[in-house]
C-alpha cells in the first residue's frame, strides 16, 4: 500500500517523460498530449459567437416554459390529433411534454456548449497521495475552486449568467402548473356518501333488494345503495362505490352491547361501512362468535357488537355505522346517511 500511495515519488522519471511512458508500481502511465488552444481561446469574435449561442439556448428554454404554460391552459384535454408514426394522441399531453422536454434539453446543451467552448479546458495531472488531505491541500482546493469559478467566466459573461438564471428560474414553473391536475379541493365530498333516507339496500354485485329474513343470525352480506348504478351510468362517477359499500351482519339483539345511535339496528341486523378506517382496505372477514371484523391488510380488528370500536391493530377510529330500517314491503332501507366520514384520515377531517 505504501508503494502505491507514493508510487509517483519512486519513479525514475516524471510524467510526460521523453520515452513516451513511465512505470509506476507496475502500471504503465502514458503522458498527456501537448495542450492545443481552441479557436474561442484565441479569437474574441468566435468566443462572442459561442456566448451568444449559449445565451440563445437558455433564452429558448425560457420561451419553451412559457409556451408550455400557454399550451397547458389553452389546449383542451379532450382534443386528440393523429401524429405520424406515433398515432392518435392527446394534443395537450404531447404538446406540453414536447415543450417541457425541449426546455430541459436546451438548458443541458447550453451548459455543455458553454463548457466546451468558453470554460477553461487546461488539463492537469495530480500524483497519488495519502487519502487524507493536509490542511495546505485543502486550502489549495479552495483556491482551485475559486480559480475554476473565475475561469468559467460566470461573473464576467453577464449575458450567459442572466439567461441561465432566467432559464433555471422558469424551469420549476411546469412542476407548479402540473399541480392543477391533482384537481380541486374535495370540499365536503369526502365527508358524505350517496346514502340517504329511504335508499334501499341491495346486494353487491347482484343488486337485489334485501329483506330481514334473507340474513340469518351470524350471516354477513356485502351491499351497496340501490341508486349506485344510476349515478355511475348518468354521472360517470365510479368513486362513489368505494365510499358507499357496506356490510350487513346479523346477531341476536341481546348480543348488541352498544350502537352509534339509538335504534340503529333492525332486529339485530347492523350495517357498517366496508372501508377500513386505517388506510381504506375493504373488509368482510367477520368472526361470528366474537362479532369481530378483521381487516386483511394490517389486522385492524373492530367489535361490531360494540359500536364498531377498535379492539386491535393500527386503526385509530371505529367503523362508521349506517342506521337502517325497513319499508312498507319489508325491504331494508337506510334511515339516513352516515353521520361521520368513512374511510381513512384526510387533511380536512380535523
Describe the protein's architecture and organization.
The chain is elongated and about 100 Å long. It has two domains: 32-118 and 153-182; 201-349, Rieske Iron-sulfur Protein (3-layer Sandwich), CATH 2.102.10. The chain is α+β, with helices and mostly antiparallel strands and 350 residues long. The protein has a five-stranded antiparallel β-sheet with strand order 5-6-7-8-13. A four-stranded antiparallel β-sheet has the order 9-10-11-12, with no helix packed on it. It has ten helices and 15 strands. The chain has helices spanning 2-5, 7-10, 39-42, 44-74, 91-117, 135-152, 158-170, 173-177, 228-235, 240-244, and strands spanning 22-24, 27-29, 80-83, 87-90, 201-203, 220-225, 246-250, 269-273, 285-287, 292-294, 301-303, 309-312, 321-322, 324-326, 332-334.
Structural descriptors:
single chain; 350 residues; alpha+beta; five-stranded antiparallel beta sheet; disordered N terminus
Short structural summary:
The chain is an alpha+beta fold.
The named CATH superfamily of the largest domain: Rieske [2Fe-2S] iron-sulphur domain
Low-confidence stretches: 1-25
Following the backbone from N to C, one meets helices and strands in this order, namely HHEEHHEEHHHHEEHHEEEEEEEEE
Give the radius of gyration. Answer: 36 Å
Determine the number of helices (DSSP H or I, runs of at least 4 residues).
10
Helix content percent band? 25-40%
CATH class call of the largest domain: Mainly Beta
CATH architecture grouping of the largest domain? 3-layer Sandwich
The strand count comes to: 15
Q: Estimate the global geometry from the Cα principal axes.
A: elongated
Note the gap between the termini.
63 Å
Instruction: State the CATH topology of the largest domain.
Output: Rieske Iron-sulfur Protein
Number of domains: 2
Major sheet size, sense and barrel closure: 5 strands, antiparallel
User: Order of strands across the biggest sheet?
Assistant: 5-6-7-8-13
**Overall pLDDT:** 86
Which class of secondary structure composition applies to the elements?
Answer: alpha+beta
Task: Report strand %.
Answer: 15-25%
Amino acid at each position: 500500500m505504501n508503494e502505491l500511495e507514493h508510487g509517483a515519488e519512486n519513479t525514475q522519471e516524471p510524467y510526460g517523460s521523453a520515452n513516451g511512458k513511465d512505470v509506476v508500481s507496475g502500471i504503465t502511465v502514458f503522458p498527456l498530449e501537448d495542450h492545443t488552444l481552441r479557436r474561442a481561446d484565441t479569437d474574441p469574435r468566435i468566443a462572442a459567437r459561442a456566448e451568444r449561442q449559449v445565451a440563445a439556448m437558455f433564452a429558448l428554454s425560457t420561451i419553451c416554459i412559457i409556451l408550455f404554460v400557454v399550451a397547458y391552459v389553452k389546449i383542451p384535454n379532450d382534443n386528440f390529433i393523429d401524429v405520424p408514426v406515433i398515432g392518435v394522441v392527446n394534443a395537450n399531453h404531447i404538446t406540453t411534454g414536447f415543450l417541457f422536454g425541449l426546455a430541459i434539453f436546451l438548458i443541458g446543451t447550453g451548459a455543455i456548449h458553454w463548457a466546451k467552448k468558453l470554460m477553461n479546458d487546461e488539463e492537469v495531472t495530480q500524483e497519488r497521495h495519502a487519502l487524507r488531505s493536509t490542511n495546505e491541500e485543502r486550502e489549495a482546493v479552495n483556491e482551485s475552486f475559486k480559480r475554476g469559478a473565475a475561469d468559467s467566466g460566470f461573473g464576467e459573461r453577464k449575458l450567459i449568467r442572466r439567461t441561465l438564471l432566467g432559464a433555471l428560474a422558469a424551469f420549476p414553473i411546469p412542476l407548479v402548473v402540473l399541480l392543477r391536475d391533482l384537481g380541486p379541493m374535495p370540499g365536503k365530498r369526502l365527508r358524505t356518501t350517496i346514502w340517504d333516507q329511504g335508499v334501499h339496500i341491495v346486494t353487491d354485485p347482484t343488486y337485489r333488494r334485501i329483506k330481514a329474513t334473507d340474513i340469518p343470525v351470524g350471516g354477513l352480506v356485502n351491499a351497496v345503495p340501490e341508486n349506485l348504478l344510476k349515478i355511475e351510468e348518468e354521472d360517470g362517477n365510479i368513486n362513489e362505490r368505494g365510499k358507499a359499500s357496506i356490510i350487513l351482519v346479523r346477531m341476536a339483539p341481546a348480543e348488541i352491547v352498544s350502537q352509534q345511535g339509538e335504534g340503529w339496528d333492525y332486529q339485530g341486523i347492523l350495517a357498517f361501512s366496508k372501508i377500513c378506517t386505517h388506510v381504506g382496505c375493504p373488509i368482510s372477514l367477520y368472526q361470528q362468535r366474537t362479532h369481530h371484523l378483521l381487516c386483511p391488510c394490517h389486522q385492524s380488528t373492530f367489535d361490531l357488537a360494540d359500536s364498531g370500536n377498535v379492539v386491535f391493530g393500527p386503526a385509530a377510529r371505529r367503523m362508521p355505522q349506517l342506521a337502517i330500517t325497513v319499508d312498507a314491503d319489508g325491504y331494508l332501507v337506510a334511515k339516513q346517511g352516515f353521520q361521520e366520514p368513512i374511510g381513512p384520515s384526510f387533511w380536512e377531517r380535523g
